[in-house]
Design goal:
By secondary structure, the protein is of the alpha/beta class. The chain has 19 helices and 17 strands. It folds into three domains: 125 residues, HUPs (Rossmann fold, 3-Layer(aba) Sandwich), CATH 3.40.50.620; 248 residues, Phosphoenolpyruvate-binding domains (TIM Barrel, Alpha-Beta Barrel); 33 residues, no CATH class. Helix 9 crosses helix 11, helix 12 runs parallel beside helix 13 and helix 14 crosses helix 15. The radius of gyration is 24 Å and the shape is globular. It starts with a strand and ends in a 5-residue tail after the last helix. Bound molecules: sulfopyruvate (SPV) and magnesium ion (MG).
């Protein structure tokens, strides 16, 4: 008699009774093959793994009753099912809910084609598994684990997606939002602590007025409730003598990267462009600042990214490229090129030209004005990090303002209620320890 095959994919870095239950059930149907989800797929679907991939494979290999361990490279099961042709795919029944339902639908369709079957096992909710998950998340928040994650993600992701955050709450949105679309699951990889939005949240203009102590407080609020890596908007970095302190503090906190822009004097937001007086720093002086930051940093993990304002200040492509070369030579770990044009053409032209001479240095872009560009297009032009720098704040403001207006208008809150998060949800939004 040929033994039937049962396949399950584990996207985990810790085994608990729920996994054991699945194996136990699977063994009743035939020989059990377990897939280990690759790091690349795991960061799209779940949090960053706390164990190296090989350790996760070995952990699964040690489970009694597992006949074979294979690697599953994608969240969706197309390739693996085509390869293994299992008689059954077994999973906890929590995948009937969003966003995992997209995966179950995918498996169902694939199995239907040849008469395979899904086995849904009641999901094991227990206090023990909840605690284990909490502990792992706490560990991932520690500076020594978090700091290096951006460099890891740059290797794992075709493009790293960062979302602006300025509080614990917005941090939670960046941390937890997962969507299923185009037959895939997706989430943000990193967080951007924007000077514009951090200042705006405090009711202050974006002119380096909010001091470092206050900005670090924002980082701490965000870090307390998230695990994703942080990219800090360091504005101009201030005086070189001050910038070195900034680098030291950020590195100690577990921030992964600081981006400093090559402006001098009173900094105004770049999206004003030449409508306000803004001075670009000299190449020599800005290079000294970068080099001083690189000298002071203690780990190989921290990144100092140089932001070029030549296109914003209409200094031309030649100037932008000259600066990119110089900043790189001074030790910058990445280049951010910024533009306020509605079309992405000048940013893409820069990326193409820079990539012709440098294939490795990460390129960062912030498509606020040229917002029609897709991540796929940016990737094609060699962009490594895309920052959605202010959309969360810009979406919250009109929503809050409308609610305030409605309450004033109707002298009660009823008319606003339809658009509000239900009270039941707001009181359970934040997990307790
Ligand atoms: C920020 O988010 O603060 C930035 C990006 O620096 S921009 O506002 O486009 O200058
Ligand atoms: Mg800024």
């Amino acid at each position: 008699m040929i033994l039937k095959t049962v396949y399950t994919c584990f996207c985990t870095d810790m085994l608990h009774e729920g996994h054991m239950n699945i194996i136990h059930e699977a063994m009743k149907y035939g020989q059990v093959i377990v897939g280990v989800l690759s790091d690349e797929a795991m960061v799209r679907f779940n949090r960053f793994p706390a164990l190296e991939f090989e350790e996760r494979v070995n952990m699964i290999k040690r489970i009694q009753g597992v006949s074979d361990v294979v690697i599953q490279n994608e969240i969706m099961y197309d390739s693996i099912i085509r390869k293994l042709h299992p008689d059954y795919v077994i999973h906890g029944d929590n995948w009937k809910e969003e966003p995992m339902k997209a995966i179950r639908d995918n498996v169902e369709k694939l199995l239907e084609a040849y008469g395979g079957q899904i086995i849904d096992v009641p999901y094991t909710y227990s206090e023990n598994t909840r605690r284990m998950e909490m502990r792992t998340r706490e560990k991932l928040r520690m500076p020594e684990y978090r700091r290096k994650r951006l460099k890891r993600l740059l290797k794992l992701c075709p493009i790293v997606k960062a979302l602006e955050v300025h509080s614990g709450l917005t941090g939670l949105i960046a941390e937890k939002t997962i969507v299923a679309g185009d037959g895939e699951l997706d989430q943000f990889d990193a967080m951007w602590i924007s000077s514009l939005c951090d200042s705006t949240a405090k009711g202050k203009p974006d002119i380096e007025l909010v001091d470092a102590t206050s900005r670090f407080r924002t980082i701490d609020d965000v870090m307390e409730v998230t695990t994703k890596p942080v990219i800090f908007d360091g504005d101009t970095g201030g005086l070189t003598e001050h910038f070195v302190y900034m680098v030291r503090s950020l590195e100690r906190m577990g921030v992964s990267a600081v981006i400093i822009e090559d402006k001098a004097g009173l900094k105004k937001n770049s999206l004003f462009g030449t409508e306000v007086a803004q001075t670009q720093d000299s190449i020599e002086h800005f290079c000294e600042k970068i080099a001083a930051g690189k000298r002071i940093q203690l780990t190989d993990e921290f990144m100092i990214i140089a932001r070029i304002e030549s296109l914003i200040l209409e200094q031309g492509m030649g100037d932008a490229l000259r600066r990119a070369r110089a900043y790189r030579a001074a030790g910058a770990d990445g280049i951010m090129i910024h533009s306020r044009k509605k079309e992405p053409d000048e940013v893409l032209a820069f990326c193409d030209m820079f990539r012709r001479e440098d294939q490795d240095t990460p390129i960062v872009v912030v498509p606020s004005s040229f917002h029609s560009i897709t991540e796929a297009e940016l990737m094609r032009h060699g962009v490594n990090i895309v920052i959605y720098a202010n959309q969360l704040t810009r979406s919250a403001f009109p929503a809050m303002e409308q609610t305030a207006k409605d309450i004033l208008k109707y002298h009660r809150a009823l008319e606003a209620e339809d658009r509000l998060l239900p009270i039941k949800d707001i009181i359970t939004l934040i997990d307790e320890l």
